[in-house]
Every structure is written in structure tokens, then in C-alpha cells.
Design brief:
Structural class: mainly alpha
Largest sheet: none
Number of strands: 0
Distance between the termini: 24 Å
Helix content: 55-70%
Number of helices: 7
Radius of gyration: 15 Å
Shape: elongated
Strand content: under 5%
Length: 147
């Protein structure tokens, strides 16, 4: 896990944010330049791939907590300051992680009503944290409240 900067593996995860032929006309058309990637001050899990993460979630004493850990870390590390050009890519990264949370919980056969309740709480907490920052009050965050 890293904080303050994105390490090379985590920066590679953000490649979906660049404009490439396979992503044309998608919601991720905003290009993110390499210099901007290192400015994104978030915690990103460098480590386990989906299969390893699924195994960790399945074996955990509290699988919902294990599945939500990257989102909880992102909530705890919500940047106080964020360049306007990075707000949408940051939100897209969180949306992507939220979808991964849902997928992993489904694959781990966790009770759907529990998964949805936790997802609602995470979305609400992330929205509230972002909306309480100067960068979150303007731009894409208030416009795209739906996860």
C-alpha cells in the first residue's frame, strides 16, 4: 500500500483514464497525463489481484470488511486539496473500485442485502467526504451522485 504517490503498478491501473481507441466514446475519455498521475494523492492497493483478493475475502473473519478495505482506505485518505483536472479521474477510480467490491462480494457468495447495505454506506461516506472538500463542492462530484 502506498500513500502520497502512485507507484508504477498503481499508476498502470489508471491507464483506463487515458484516451485510447478501445475507450473512445466511453465515460473515461478524459486524458490523464503521466505527470498528473503522480499528483493524485490517494491510497491504492498495489498488491493482490482479484483472485487473491477473493481468497482473502472468503477466508476473512469479516468478509465484508475485507472487501471494503480499499474503499475505506480511500475514504480515510480523501485528499483535502485536489487539482480540478484530477477530480473526475479520482472519482472514476473510486467508481471502478466500488464495482470491484460488488463483483468480489458476489463471487464470495456474501448475502446480497448485507453487500448492498455496506455499498450504500460506503457510497454515502465517500460522497459526504468529497462534498466536504473545496474541490468536491464544484465540478463532477455533485453532478454525478449516482455510483
Amino acid at each position: 500500500m502506498t500513500d502520497s504517490t502512485l507507484t508504477p503498478p498503481a499508476a498502470d491501473m489508471m491507464s483506463f483514464l487515458s484516451t485510447t481507441p478501445e475507450h473512445k466514446n466511453s465515460e473515461y475519455e478524459t486524458p490523464v497525463h503521466t505527470s498528473q498521475r503522480t499528483e493524485l494523492n490517494v491510497i491504492v492497493e498495489d498488491g493482490p489481484d482479484s483472485k487473491l483478493r477473493l481468497a482473502e475475502i472468503s477466508a476473512a473473519a469479516n468478509p465484508l470488511l475485507a472487501a471494503a478495505q480499499p474503499l475505506l482506505c480511500a475514504l480515510a485518505a480523501m485528499p483535502a486539496k485536489l487539482d480540478a483536472a484530477l477530480v473526475e479521474p479520482y472519482r472514476n477510480l473510486l467508481v471502478r473500485e466500488m464495482h470491484l467490491y460488488q463483483t468480489l462480494c458476489d463471487q464470495a457468495n456474501l448475502r446480497r442485502e448485507h453487500v448492498l447495505a455496506v455499498r450504500y454506506c460506503l457510497c454515502t461516506a465517500l460522497d459526504e467526504a468529497a462534498n466536504n472538500t473545496t474541490w468536491g463542492r464544484r465540478g463532477v462530484w455533485p453532478e454525478k451522485a449516482c455510483w
